[in-house]
Every structure is written in structure tokens, then in C-alpha cells.
Amino acid sequence: MIYSITGELVYADPNMAAVNVNGIAFQCDISLNTFQHLGSNGSTVTLYTYMNFKQDGVDLLGFYDRSEVDAFKMLTGVSGVGPKAALAILSEMDPAKLTLAIAAGDYKAITRAKGVGPKAAQRIVLELKDKVAKGLEGGNASDTFVAAATATAAGNSNAADAVGALVMLGYSQSEAAIAVGKLDQTLSTEDLIKQALKQLA
Question: Which one, 27, 47, 110, 180, has least CB within 10 Å?
Fold first, then answer.
């Protein structure tokens, strides 16, 4: 198995990147998210990889960091969700935003991905919500997943209110959720906002 590749970026578009490693150019299917993290042609890049074995061959998928790999694996672990749909979802939202949607039960956000209908999105939320919760309790999820999901965990209205206030101040939902998620969740809404602003400054 190939864990990652590092080399010269020779071509990239929103669906594919080619990376030259010692004279061999590896073609990787990518998400729009990963594409937006890549530099210009000729720059040195590292892509974390996943090999998708098919009946007619093998596809190599590339991701900008481990949190996106984790998100991809979680998505493809859902019944009926293949690599193409998983990449479409990750093209629509980064791992933190995906985790927020799952934790909040917001399947409609997932339906914005190309080719993902309401039934598939509801199944994703249904099958992954418990996994996200277990990650929070056991520390098995990636840091990005844990931080984002903590801020919207069921029953924590202070955290949810703090995230909402930060969004009103102009921060993205994922930035706000990650900042709040790193704090003591027993704090008041006001204290959560104050401490999150210190992190975001």
C-alpha cells in the first residue's frame, strides 16, 4: 500500500492531480478541497493516498491531509457510498464542516454534493453519528473531527450558542466550531466566546 507521495506537481484540475516522483507521474483522483490546497505546477506537494481496487483496475486517490483521508474512509464505510460520492461530498465541504453536519444531523448540507440525494445523505448521518460520538468519548477520531463535533454535541447549548455568535462576528462555521471545541465545554456561553476569540485572534 502507498501511504503518501511527495514530488513535483505537473498537472492539477478540480478532479485530478499528477505528481512526478523520481520520473514516474502518479495520477490521483482528488476532491475540490485538495485541489484548492495545491500549489502551482512545478511546486513540491505531498498527497496522502488511498488505493481503490476495482474490477477493471486500481485508482489512486490523493488527499491534502490525514483528516480528509479519515473523512473519506468514514464516508465509504457507509452502505451505498462509493469513492465517487465520497469525493463529491469532500468537494462540497471540508472534513470539519462534514463533521459538523453529521453531529448536528444536518443531512441537507450533504445533499449539496453532486449526485448525493436525500436518502444517501440521511443514511450517512444515521450511520456515522454514533461513530463521531464514540470518537469524542474515546479519542479515536482525528483532532479535526473531535474538535468540530464537540462544539455541536447534542445537549451542549452553550457551545452551540458560542459557535453561532462567532459566525455572526464573521468567522466561518468550521473555524468557530474548532475553536470552541478545544475549550472546556462546561464554561458559560460568554466565556466560551471570549476564549475562542483569543484563539482566533
Answer: 27
The CATH architecture assigned to 4-63 reads Beta Barrel (2.40)
- Secondary structure (3-state) at 68: helix
- Alpha helices, DSSP H only, in the chain? 32-37, 66-76, 83-92, 95-104, 107-110, 118-138, 143-150, 157-168, 173-181, 189-200
pLDDT confidence of residue 143 = 53
How far is Cα 127 from Cα 35, in angstroms, rounded to an integer? Answer: 28
Rounded CA-CA distance 199/176 in Å is 10
Task: Supply the pLDDT for residue 25.
Answer: 96
pTM: 0.70
DSSP state of 185: T
CATH tag, 151-200: 1.10.8
Give the 3-state DSSP-derived string for 90-129, with helices as H, strands as E and coil as C.
HHHCCHHHHHHHHHHCCHHHHCCCCCCCHHHHHHHHHHHH
